[in-house]
Structure formats: structure tokens, C-alpha cells
Amino acid sequence: MTKQEAEEYVYASYLKAAPYQNYAAKDAEKRHPELTRGYLRSLSKTPCVVVTGSKGKGSVTNMIAKILEPYFHVGLMTSPHILDFCERFKVDGVQISDEQFVKVMQEIKSSFDEIQEGLSRDVCISPMGIQAAVGLKFFQKARTEFNVFECGKGAQYDDVNNIPHQYAVINSIFLEHTRELGSTLEEIASDKAHVINGEQKCVYAGPQADSVMQVIESRATEYGVPLKCYGRDFSARNIRYTESGMVFDVVTNMHEYPDLRVPLLGEHQARNCALAVALCEDVVEKPGESFLQGNDEDGMLRKTTLQESLAALHWPGRMEILSQNPFMLLDACINRTSAEEVLKTLRALDIKDITCIIGIPDDKDFLGVTQCMQPIAKHIILTRSQNPHYVFTIKQKDILEDQGIKAEWMDSLKSALELAKRYDDKIIILGTTSVVGEVALYIRKMKH
Hints:
Helix content: 40-55%
Largest sheet: 8 strands, mixed
Oligomer: single chain
Shape: globular
Distance between the termini: 32 Å
């Protein structure tokens, strides 16, 4: 088996069933996490946390892993990737090698082949289920002591939620993936709140709308799981912007951590960090164990170690400053809510009169993102990625013009970037992860 064949196997069952499925159907009608439940649970013997939410799941999972690495041997699974599928699986910050990925896939393939046998043509094994098994097997071989898993878009019908998890994180929830998860905020919250199943020592919730918090609180109460909430049990305070990232304090019920720095932009990254710190305090709180010896600071987490861990964060495509001359900023942004965070950050840094490149598929919120950025954009350039699984068409330009928004269409990211550079403005690039990946490749080629 080659690496390409191993990667293709992750999607093989889904691609086989897709032509017979109703694209518009809810996840409840076409996803079957019960198929992988037994196998995934058999692979999981290590304490872990599962992270869900509408935005910031990846940032929080990365922060948790980075904070815990000085105390534990940590496995991390995230998705999607930017350039290489193997980016999704890391142990202590080092991604799985191509050879390890192939070996793990060869070891688990027979189990999934057995599950596949007898399935009707419209039923499939979720790619997330196979991905979760790869992560669990890899971490098992590496003898990790704590694992961190990022859910896909939901939780109730997401195979990642099959993994026994002693902790759960629910970051901020807003309207997204309405076709799959539900048409109302409460329906989406109900789906993601299924990350709480009674096995948890605690669940941690980021800032939420009142109606969302009611759903989460109800689920936690029903299953008897303690709930810690942003603004009540932990928070980020004294948040400051710098050109190299955010500076802020994190305050929890147990301690205060002043002047934390993350090389990521946006107030939401400070809130993400508070969420990660609140969880990590509880995970690390094991009195008498060796990693706490020598901690003469009152906090459960060593302050200097925490500061060093956060300063070393690298999370491509998340409010990432690509260059200063010309100024280029890249964010994996596909909806209005995320774009509002970008706009807030740019205004805090007094950045205006920008050229904005937007690469968002037709079925995502390209209109909302464009409307949000229009007040500070001198030029708007629409473009597409070369990923065949996404649909980008020039009709986006017509839709924007009907709303009174002037935009240009370029049929490739390379041509969009070349046009943007001719305008000699600060360049802001917003788009789906396939666009983010192509930007990273473009920048890499330019440097070499």
C-alpha cells in the first residue's frame, strides 16, 4: 500500500455511497457512527478530550496539546489538513511519517473491510471514523499518556464522538452547516452537545448565546456532568493587540496567568486560550505526581512553562501573517461570523483600504464574508481552489453585483494573488482550507 492508496482508503466507502445518497439530507439520515463505535472504543485506552464547536476547534485542540506537552506524552488529531494528510496526526508536535501512516492503515484496514461488507449501497463508513482509528492506533503505538481529538462539523453523528473521552470542550456555536446539522441555532447546539454522554469528568464551554447555553446546561444536567463556562469559571482579560499576536491574562477559579502571548491574531484567540487553560488545569491537577514537583508557583500550570508553550504555537491559516512587505494576512474563513472577527482585528490594528481575496465555495457564505469586508476593501477579488470536491463559479460575482458590491473574478489563486500585488494594498486572503493550502504552496514557491 502506498501513501496515496492509504489516503484514498479513508474516503473509499464514502465515495462509493455518495452517488446514492441525498445530498440535501441531514446527518441524522445519512451518517452512521454506530458502524465504527465498537472498533473505536476497543482502540481507546488513554485519557482524552474531544473538542467541538462552530469555530476555533482547531485552535483550541492545538493549544491544549501544546500546553500539556511538558506534562504528558500527547497525541493530537485535527482536521482538515492544509498541505499533507499526515498533518492530522501528531505526537508531541511531530506529525506521523508517511511510512507510519501506511503501516497503521494496513493494520486497521481489515477491520473496516469487515464493516463494509453487507452495507447497502447508500450507507458508508464515515471518513472521520477511519481517521479516528488511524489516530488511535498511532497514539497507541507511541504510548501517549493523553490524547486530544477535534470533532468534525458536529458531534451527535460524528464518529470521533465514539472515542471514550473523560473531558469535552464545546467552543462557541453559531449558525453553520445548516444543511447537515439543523436550521436553527438550538438544533446545531443540540447536535454538538452530544459530546456530553455521561463519561466526562467535566465539560468546558466557550462563550455562547443564551439559547445555546441552555441546551448545553440541560444536556450536562441530564447526564450529571460538571460544566465550566467562559465568563463564570474562567475568562481572558486585559486583551491587547500587537502586530505579532495577542497578549492577555487568563483567570480561572484556581489561578491567574498574566501576560500570556499567542502568535495568532484576534480576541477570539484569547478566549480560545482561556478555554484550553481551564481544561489543562484540571487535567494536570494530580497532587503528588512528579511533574508538579518544583512548581513553586501556586498555579496548577507552571506559569513560565505555559508562556513558553503558547509562544511556540503555530497554526497555519488562522489569522496568519504571511509577510509584512507587502502585508499579507491569511484566514480560513467561510462565514460572516468568522469574517466579523477578522474585521474587528484589522480595525484594532488600524488596517484599512485593503485588497481582499475571497475563495469560498458556492454553497458557503461567500456573500456574508464579502459584505462584512466591503467597508474596508478597495478591491475585492473572487477566486477558486483547484480542489475538485468544491464548487466555485463566476456566478458569485453576479450575486455580489446584485447586492451592489463590485468584485473581480480570477480563475486561479495564483492569478488572484498576482492581481492583488499590482494594486499595492495590504492583502487579506479569506477562504476555505483548500484555498489556504494553495496559498501556503504559493508562498513556499516564492521563497524558493
